[in-house]
Design a protein that fits this description.
alpha+beta, BirA Bifunctional Protein, domain 2, 8-stranded mixed beta sheet, ligase, ATP binding
């Protein structure tokens, strides 16, 4: 399946690449009459076959330099090498920052016609070498703009948006090979950027980029990651649609609390009818402490009695809300609330997906899931995206075979269609990641039981684990890392877990101690997918609900599936962000989500 998945998923893109290589015509974007940079410098030949043709291109300025006019004619210093890097060269940086080097450069290039950076802010006469990128590919395109067309300080400002027209020319690059640039003769649009643009530095830290999510996609790293994410999602849809699945939209708001309610975001309007919010006890306690400190400060200042009274009233309301949450929903009257019952942001989509699997047979969804836990922000997101699938008339092995095929199909498509992105990301994170991914896809994934995994760990003598290895306890990340990376050295499918480690809906096995559930564990990132055969027997399911102390009334709709036309069915859930970490080799999960949400961070 993996080999056919690889070839099928990448076939159309390979044909497109071949067409771009052999065609000498500019391919315009259908809906804006411009050429994407992917169709120019993103071609296999780097755009060399387009030399002499005219094109309209747009993008955002990544870096720039200005060639000032000589007193007699124009200077002809060495150009910035086109389409090879998005940053200024060391020489250019030194000239812009060290006056002595700039003076030497002026003497070499003929005095008044020296290369100068526009950091002085003065209006320059000459031409600008500007690198732009429209987000469609990794390479930038260098454009050359004469000062007679527009003020160079506007067009060369990092962060500015340009739409220009001109002719594609061949020039000599840094490696003495020909590359292309666009000599501009028409400036169609300038979206100016001022000196406060936050991403104007040559080198940007991950922390700075995360602090500016509105501009993050303008960096090569984030843009490359987004294109990888897009390809993964596309390949996933192709996989399921090709194999006879139907896409279903599952709800984001649910009234079913199938697990620990303290880890779910509550949606309420009752206590603040002007604002919908997800409220947890932890959030309220934090608010109470902050309000107490504010009141103490106001009392010390004795300057604003109205502000003090308002703060004290807010504290009373917060304490009232805290009491309601601590008492539980049983003592809260939801008759006037929006849904007239407790509601939450959905932490999982498997229960709702089961209802459609028991009607359409094979279904899947791509949806956000929410978890209100204070976990390590670089490893866990509050809002994450999952790919969930459910198959009727299927047992456990059917589910993890489908999950394995889906993962191999999607990863193969990315390796084929996002090779430039992966090559660039490997320079930013893990330069062995591409080889690791090839190994993951070519190796046979090993299937072992939970007990076999524990027994293997218990026999380890040359290594000590921080977390105790014991039957009946969860496998920690370090346990799984050892099994996958050091012992078996391949992806693992671990199944047949103790029932206390998996959800109530996992099918109980004959020993009545273990359930038909599994995890797919990958090197470096841990669990990327989890699944289970669902309990179709009504008596067994209700017994598990009672055993875990879950309220049955909110689950009546779910139990109806077993009352009316039950069937064996199985499913799984793939963590999209962890899958992207696996493919890209990046380390921090916040860097693979366009707008990452963690505790204390919901910036925009």
């Amino acid at each position: 399946m993996a080999s056919s998945a690889s070839s099928s998923a990448s076939g159309s893109s390979a044909e497109d690449a071949g067409a771009r290589s052999s065609s000498s015509a500019i391919q315009c974007f259908k809906y804006s009459q411009r050429a994407t940079l992917r169709s120019v410098v993103g071609r296999p030949d780097g755009g060399l076959g387009l030399a002499g043709q005219r094109a309209v291109v747009g993008g955002w300025v990544k870096s720039s330099s200005v060639l000032k006019a000589k007193r007699f004619g124009m200077a002809s210093p060495a150009r910035m090498p086109a389409a090879e890097t998005t940053n200024l060269t060391c020489t250019e940086v030194l000239m812009s920052r060290v006056p002595l080097i700039r003076c030497i450069a002026k003497l070499i290039t003929g005095g008044a016609g020296a290369i100068d950076n526009i950091s002085s802010g003065k209006s320059a006469v000459g031409s600008a070498l500007v690198r732009i990128n429209d987000g469609s590919c990794v390479p930038d395109l260098q454009i050359v703009v004469d000062s007679s067309l527009c003020p160079l300080e506007q067009i060369a400002a990092v962060g500015a948006c340009l739409l220009v027209e001109g002719e594609i020319e061949l020039v000599e690059g840094r490696s003495k090979q020909h590359v292309v640039e666009l000599r501009v003769d028409k400036v169609l649009h300038i979206g100016a950027a001022d000196s406060k643009y936050p991403l104007s530095d040559v080198r940007l830290s991950s922390e700075l980029v995360r602090d500016c999510p509105q501009f993050a996609a303008r960096t090569i790293t984030v843009a490359s990651t987004v294109r990888v994410r897009s390809e993964l999602i596309h390949a996933t849809h192709v996989f399921f649609q090709t194999n006879g699945f139907f896409h279903v939209n599952t709800p984001i708001i649910t009234t079913t609390a199938a697990g620990d309610r303290s880890k779910m975001f509550r949606v309420m309007c009752l206590l603040s009818k002007s604002d919908d919010r997800g409220i947890t006890p932890e959030v309220v306690r934090t608010s109470i402490e902050a309000k107490k400190k504010q009141i103490e400060a106001l009392k010390r200042s004795e300057s604003n009695k109205e502000a003090l009274e308002a703060a004290e009233l807010d504290l009373q309301r917060a304490n009232h809300l805290a009491r309601q949450l601590e008492q539980g929903e049983g003592n809260t009257d939801f008759a006037d609330d929006f849904f007239q019952r407790p509601a939450y942001l959905s932490p999982s989509h498997t229960l709702h997906l089961e209802t459609y699997a028991c009607a359409l047979s094979s279904v899947y969804t791509l949806s956000p899931a929410f978890q209100a836990e204070s976990l390590e922000p670089h490893k866990h997101l509050t809002e994450r995206w999952t790919i969930d699938a459910e198959l009727a008339f299927a047992e456990l092995e059917d589910a993890f075979s489908c999950a394995e095929d889906c993962l191999k199909w999607s990863c193969s498509a990315v390796l084929k269609n996002c090779s430039d992105e992966l090559k660039f990301l490997s320079t930013q994170a893990d330069n062995r990641n591409e080889d690791r991914m090839e190994s993951v896809l070519s190796s046979q994934w090993l299937r072992i039981t939970y007990n076999e995994a524990i027994n293997t760990l218990l026999q380890v003598t040359d290594k000590s684990f921080e977390n105790k290895v014991e039957l009946g306890t969860p496998l920690s990340p370090e346990h799984m890392s050892y099994l996958v990376e050091e012992h078996h050295k391949r992806p693992l499918i671990i199944y047949q877990y103790p029932k206390q480690l998996k959800p109530f809906y996992a099918r109980l096995m004959e020993d009545e101690k273990t359930v038909s559930a599994f995890d797919i564990v990958m090197p470096k990132v841990g669990i990327v997918a989890s699944g289970a055969q669902k309990e179709e027997r009504m008596d067994m399911l209700t017994s598990r609900i009672d055993e875990l102390g879950l309220p049955q009334e909110p689950l009546e709709w779910y139990l109806d599936i077993r009352r009316h036309g039950t069937a064996k069915h199985s499913g799984f859930s793939i963590d999209m962000e962890r899958l992207i970490l696996l493919v890209t080799g990046l380390k921090d999960i916040r860097d693979v989500s366009p707008f990452s949400r963690t505790k204390g961070n919901a910036r925009c």
